[in-house]
Amino acid sequence: MIHGRQKAAVGRRMKQTMLAAAALPLVMAGWSAPAAAQDESTETTRTKEPRRIRVGLGAQFVPSYPGADDHSLRPLVDVSLTRGAKPFGFEAPDESFGPSLIDAGGFEFGPALNFESSRKPKDVGVDLDKVDFTVEAGAFAQYAFGPKFRIRVEGRKGLGGHDGWTGQAGADFVARDGDEWLFSVGPRVTWSDGRYQRAYFGVTAPESVRTGLPVYRPGSGIQAVGATAGFLTQLSRRFGIYSYAKYDRLVGDAADSPVVRGFGSRDQFSGGLALTYTFGPGS
Questions:
Q1: Global pTM value
Q2: What is the C-alpha to C-alpha distance for residues 136 and 8, in angstroms, rounded to an integer?
Q3: Nearest to 101 by CA among 26, 16, 38
Q4: Domain containing 172: what range?
Q5: CA angle 30, 34, 37 (to 5 degrees)
Q6: Are strands 239-250 and 221-234 parallel, antiparallel or unpaired?
Q7: Surface-to-core class of residue 109, CB atoms within 10 Å of its CB (0-12 exposed, 13-18 middle, 19+ buried)
Q8: What are the pLDDT digits (tens) for 17-53?
Q9: Which of 168, 230, 236, 263 is least surrounded by Cβ atoms within 10 Å, i.e. has the fewest?
Q10: Does the residue 28 lie in any domain?
């Protein structure tokens, strides 16, 4: 599903399921010409299955910045693709956007793209340095133990803005009835390096002079632990509802930050609701 985690300025990330090109069958000794022709015909029929697209539009409340005690209303956008009667693939509400470049035997690997909104002094309520909008680019790897259980890890580097490294590891239990309804829930662990943590949770000497807060220089480590749940159900052949809820508890250096203790919150909540519409035959 497309939307970012609590950080995305545009409702987290847009996600798309991109289909890998089908491999041509190898012609081996002993195959008969009619059998080869039949295989080719089957493959052609499969690749010509009509595409279905599900688009969700709505709104979400997310923390105004990492460690904030207030929330911002932002767009929630979801896009999923599939072909024919195959159900739409599962995507957790808080995973980054990125297609699978490798998809074999339950294992998937590919790029991960996310966005972190800016933090201005007025957002905090004290004269801390501004953290600019950040594009985070990296990679993900995941493995599905059948249709009901999946683990996933991401690592991303900030390009501008906080300029640090951040990542997330999580597991999801998935229950579904095809495309009629889907429920997912699972734990999360968020990690970030010292540069990321200093951008949002640190206090430099000049900032200390301006604000009266003590100088604070956090290091790398576990930033938060929490859980994410999502639910999607069809109201009719084409219309449906998508919703999600997420909770993170700041821990370690992030939780001990004078910025969080004085002006933010260790408890980070987010959630959203969207109306979905499915394009394509048979919907």
A1: 0.80
A2: 10
A3: 16
A4: 33-279
A5: 105
A6: antiparallel
A7: middle
A8: 333 333 333 333 333 334 344 444 444 445 578 999 9
A9: 236
A10: no
